[in-house]
Amino acid sequence: MKQLKPLQRYLELFSENRIDAIGRFIGDQINENWQAVLVKNEDKLLKAYNEGGDAAYGTYLNLLFAPIHTQLKEAGLRPTPKFPGDFNISREWGNEDETDQQRWMWSSVHALNGGTVGTIVTIVFHDHTQFRVPRQPRIIALSEYGKEDVVKALSLLSPDFEQALEFTAEYKEYLRNLPS
């Protein structure tokens, strides 16, 4: 994977807003590496999809975020939960044939010496009919943190987000609608 400027440099350049600096860093890393991770790990990801379905996207995201986590740790920062975020409270929507879905997840970023810096939202575009990432993942940096404040901020940014159910509620609905 190609390494751009280190996170510490972003924090120096954009010192007035740390979460924005972190968001720019992560966005640039993803922009530079999202396709390379897919190509380099194609066999592993296709095998994961064939064996576990959509869980393969989690494998992809773990590979994509691994060097980002290293940079955060070196800068004295830690995301909670690990990037890309808590799947259980994430929200998803997309087209009817499920070939272009997006899932929004987030993590709060904390300084190791205390205090929350803000929230990084990861938008993952994916396909439910085959393993395919149709578009580059996107990053949104928010100064808000805490579930209620993040949901409120994201609902203002996206009517689709506001209308989508959290994964746990969506899954309960799915189970309720299964034939007996």
Number of domains: 1
Average of pLDDT:
93
Q: Structural class from helices and strands?
A: alpha+beta
In whole angstroms, the N-to-C terminal distance is: 48 Å
Query: Any idea what the radius of gyration is?
Result: 17 Å
Global outline:
globular
Which series of helices and strands comes N to C? HHHHEEEEEHHH
Proportion of β residues?
15-25%
Determine the oligomeric state from the structure.
single chain
By DSSP (H or I, 4+ residues per run), the number of helices equals: 7
Count the E strands: 5
> Main sheet?
5 strands, antiparallel
Helix content: 40-55%
Low-confidence region ranges: none
Short recap of the structure:
With 180 residues, this protein is of the alpha+beta class. It is 48% helix and 19% strand.
Could you explain how this protein is built, in words?
This protein is α+β, with helices and mostly antiparallel strands and 180 residues long. The chain has one domain (7-176). The chain is 48% helix and 19% strand. It contains 7 helices and 5 strands; from the N terminus they run ααααβββββααα. The chain has helices at 7-13, 18-40, 42-52, 55-74, 147-157, 159-163, 167-176; strands at residues 77-80, 91-94, 101-111, 116-126, 138-142. Strands 1, 2, 3, 4 and 5 form a 5-stranded antiparallel β-sheet that branches. Strand 3 and strand 4 form a beta hairpin. It is globular, with a radius of gyration of 17 Å. The N and C termini lie far apart (48 Å).
